[in-house]
Amino acid sequence: PPPLFPYLLYLACVHVWLCRREVCAGVPECRELIARLVLEARQLYAGPALDDQPSQGGQGGQGGRGGLFQLERCFFMRFSQGAMLALDTALAQPSKVGGVVLLAGFLMNVETWALRLKTNHADLRVLQIHGLDDWAIPFETARWLQGLLQAHSTRVIFVPHGGGHTVSQSTVSVVTVLSGGGVLKNN
User: Fold this and answer.
1) Phi/psi at 16 (nearest 5 deg)?
2) Which end of the chain, C or N, has fewer beta carbons within 10 A?
């Protein structure tokens, strides 16, 4: 690392610490875009759900579950600053989501997240992956996020890796194995 690395690491920690109590610049606009994307997906896939059973009235198809787009089967996955937006988006949904995969994520707006985790997202499933040598978002901040999630009864799988601020092939393999093996599936 360059000679300034310890100083830059300190500044990164300070930045993340400050952002954890407030909403960082640009986040409201991102929230709006993501909310619009979720709404459009719901509208686009409003047809009958694949696993709907006929209702008691003998009518199949709708089953009251929102068609092909079912929020409880939707996973939000992002990297770095996108990871905080993925969690923020999941927690902003009116009902439970399938889960969240956070790759090198950190805390933001702690009080709001804590309140949302207590209410309708208490058993949220989270896969959190973070590099031990992450220079952009220090590993300690991942532990802060893990602590918040665990304090509110989420089901967190925390996977540290030996790399830095990257998405490596091993990270992709972990996500693939966990999702294919039923750990992240709705069972």
Assistant:
1) -65, -40
2) C
Burial class (CB in 10 A: 0-12, 13-18, 19+), 183: middle
The answer to whether the beta carbons of residues 46 and 69 sit under 8 Å apart is yes
Asked if residues 67 and 50 have their Cβ atoms less than 8 Å apart, the reply is no
Q: Which residue intervals of 27-168 are DSSP H helices?
A: 27-44, 81-92, 110-118, 139-151
CB 103 within 8 A of CB 77: yes
Q: Can you give the pTM of this predicted structure?
A: 0.72
Distance CA 62, CA 73 (A): 16
Q: Which two tokens stand for residue 100?
A: 């969240």
